[in-house]
Amino acid sequence: MGTKSKLNMMVEKGRDLAARMMNGIAKSEPPFEQLKDKCAALLTARGQASGIAMAGDVHTLYKLCNDTEKSEFFQFLLEEFGRDKATLIETCRRYSDDPSHDNLKALTLIMEPKRQELFKRMNMAPGGTMALIDMRTDLLRLLKARPELKPVDMDFLLLFKTWFNRGFLTMEPISWNSPAVILERLIAYEAVHEITSWDDLKRRLDPPDRLCYGFFHPNLKDMPLIFVEVALCEDIPGSIQDILAPARHVLEGSEARVATFYSINNCLTGLKGIYFGNFLIKQVVANLQLTHPHLKKFVTLSPIPGFKSWLTHDNRAADFGLSADDLERLTQTDWFNDAELNARMNQVLRPAAIQYLTDRQPSSHRLHDSVARFHLGNGARIENIHYLADTSLRGLTNSYGVMVNYLYEREKIEANHEAFAVRHEVSLSSEMRSLKAKSEKTFTTANNRKAG
Fold it and tell me: Labelling 61: which of 52, 219, 423, 437 has CA 20 to 30 A away?
């Protein structure tokens, strides 16, 4: 008898046992009430088979709940499956008076709320890991209106950081020959540059100068947690249109000198707060250095998602010489076909972009741009900024089509990371330092004019 058949028999046996244990629950109870009862029973279950069956029932009942009931369920987890504060305070006092092994053990046990143990048991069900990720996805959406539920989210995140530790993940290449279910997920989760068709996907995966890698977890074998698309190029690219062009020249053999990471996508919202990207990029770089030793540079071609919002806020556009009429014209998707406006924006948007990418949030060392924080925090430097690098509707809407290269130099990654993390310094190429100086001069002149 196969392992799967044995597991099915165990689950069915568990369902019978669970049904006998839960025979006090009226069948007429609504799913939400049954869900609460099942959670209480699951936490006290002793048998493995009955626990697996109950965990499956919990997930089934949860899926039957509407948003209001899901919100109430998370409130239930907050109130009924938290820490016993009185016991925690007393245990802390005992450990403070006598920091013995036994008192430390007692403190460690009481520090873990009951809901963490509940989540561990819910994970026993077939498909339990994905069900818990989906549950946290719901919670993150509901947190906007119910911030008091954050302790429940913290417990999800603590467990997920353990379960999705880098040591459990495998990096795998994704090609046109990968299973169809994985390819379908690439199309579904591509959030940077939309994949418009299967032909479009094939152009990104099949040619020898186009690669893709993803991180996978053993419990989610056909679900990439994150994937990165790579273009092998002759030089550092300045346009996503060139990378994705259907009729482009395909490089062969050792023609390529630059590996460009042009799209990095986290697939599961429920794993927000777990950072896979830095590990993935570093491992892909290490892998490419072995398989493509002729590569000399490793860069990104990255979007600048918050640039437009920043530039049009607090009258900043005027500081760079943009009038209200200019901003109105820039809302038109074909504005760059206006030769006069196009030439002027080429002189305005690049200095404004470097100012944005190096600008800090009020009363903080935190950069405005999340993509910049990610790459600079990983030890990259800002290599170049490109005008009209993304003329898609998304690119024009978010950043007037401006994109940026972040360069990863292996021998400088650690120094750049330390400078950014400790001294809040942004590493810039010589060209970007010059552009930054020009931007600062424009910004200072505008502010002096305002003051005068």
Answer: 219
| Contact criterion met (CB below 8 Å) for 299 and 231 | no
Q: Are 417 and 379 in contact (CB under 8 A)?
A: yes
pLDDT class for 410, splitting at 50, 70, 90? confident
User: Do 262 and 224 touch, CB atoms closer than 8 A?
Assistant: no
- Determine the 3-state secondary structure of 283 from DSSP: helix
Q: What is the DSSP letter of 217?
A: B
Q: Phi first, then psi: what are they for 219, rounded to 5°?
A: -85, -10
- For residue 46, what pLDDT is reported? 82
Convert the pLDDT of each residue in 426-451 to its tens digit: 999 999 999 999 888 776 665 555 55
Strand partners of residue 367 = 360
Residues β-bridged to residue 293: none
The helix (H) or strand (E) run that includes residue 213 is strand 210-216
Helices (H), 359-429: 370-377, 393-399, 413-423
Which token pair is 217? Answer: 């977890």
Instruction: Out of 3.40.630.150, 3.40.50.300, 3.40.50.170, 3.30.420.40, select the CATH number for domain 307-451.
Output: 3.40.630.150
Q: Among candidates 201, 203, 223, 204, which has minimal Cα distance to 214? A: 223
Sign of CA dihedral 62, 64, 68, 69: negative
φ and ψ at residue 162, rounded to 5 degrees: -80, -50
Rounded to two decimals, the pTM is 0.86
Shared fold status for 167-300 and 307-451: yes
Average pLDDT, the chain: 90
Going from the C-alpha of 325 to that of each of 23, 160, 320, 341, 450, the distances in angstroms are 72, 49, 14, 11, 20
The residues pairing with 297 across neighbouring beta strands, listed in sequence order, are: 258
- CATH fold for domain 167-300: Aminopeptidase (3.40.630)
- Provide the 8-state DSSP code for 361: P
Helix (H, G, I), strand (E, B) or coil at 138: helix
Strand pairing of 258-266 and 297-300?
A: parallel
